[in-house]
């Protein structure tokens, strides 16, 4: 009798909507990232560039080495626009404008990233690239929602970036309910239980940052206790939403 292997604790099934794309409507030096709202059908690819690296040792068989990777993607976006100005949303304006220009003006600066419905985002599933744009109207019927089909072709390789996702708009301010086990010394790990931990940028023991920490989920952080004296210390978690109220913890000797 066969059985289905169990998954590790804390495992969840990914969802198709768990990706984000931002358009830089600022400058390269001072980016102003605007999320592409009402997006669907995100389909990134990283086409390879190969070179023949075959030698006599391959005895006539082909051998192609991957010398580079490009970036390309396609997606759809609804054509929402202002009833006052007539303009599309800023990110859609940037896409449309680039698709009708040439030279540098035909390029846009984009970043993409994993943005889960719950739990911690994948820390390295994110990148940034300059890209050229092609746009077509997807729906052309007599009574359909106006939707643009967009294709981006990267210029050169994309740049891996730290995942910038900090949670959905309803991500709460951080709060700590427990820090376990008690009396850990410097270099040992503690588990911080609470809420609103997505996108955490720091974990502090008093005024000293944790030696290392991992955001396991919106409710759990594993942190390494930094150097410091034994006794009472206030633990806080810092996120883009704010800093948690202090949690009293007793360090070991």
TrEMBL record:
Q: Which Pfam families match?
A: TIG
Show where the IPT/TIG domain sits: 174-240
Q: Which InterPro entries match?
A: Ig-like_fold, Ig_E-set, IPT_dom
- What is the designated name of this protein? IPT/TIG domain-containing protein
Lineage at the top is:
Bacteria, Bacillati, Actinomycetota, Actinomycetes, Micrococcales
């Amino acid at each position: 009798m066969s059985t289905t292997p169990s998954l590790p604790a804390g495992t969840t099934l990914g969802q198709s909507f768990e990706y984000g794309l931002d358009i830089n409507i600022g400058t390269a030096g001072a980016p102003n990232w605007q999320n592409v709202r009402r997006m669907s059908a995100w389909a990134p690819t990283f086409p390879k560039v190969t070179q023949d690296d075959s030698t006599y040792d391959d005895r006539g068989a082909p051998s192609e080495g991957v010398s580079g990777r490009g970036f390309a993607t396609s997606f759809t976006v609804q054509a929402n626009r202002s009833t006052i100005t007539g303009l599309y949303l800023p990110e859609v304006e940037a896409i449309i404008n680039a698709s009708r220009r040439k030279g540098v003006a035909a390029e846009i600066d984009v970043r993409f990233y994993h943005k889960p419905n719950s739990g911690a985002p994948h820390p390295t599933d994110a990148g940034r690239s300059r890209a050229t744009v092609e746009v077509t109207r997807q729906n052309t019927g007599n009574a359909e929602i106006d939707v643009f089909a967009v294709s981006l072709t990267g210029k050169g390789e994309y740049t891996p970036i730290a995942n910038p996702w900090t949670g959905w708009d309803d991500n709460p301010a951080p709060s700590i309910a427990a820090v376990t086990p008690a009396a850990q010394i410097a270099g040992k790990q503690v588990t911080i239980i609470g809420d609103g931990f997505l996108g955490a940028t720091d974990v502090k023991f008093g005024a000293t940052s944790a030696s290392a920490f991992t955001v396991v989920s919106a409710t759990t952080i594993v942190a390494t206790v930094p150097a410091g004296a034994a006794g009472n210390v206030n633990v806080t978690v810092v996120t883009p939403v704010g800093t948690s109220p202090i949690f009293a913890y007793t360090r070991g000797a």
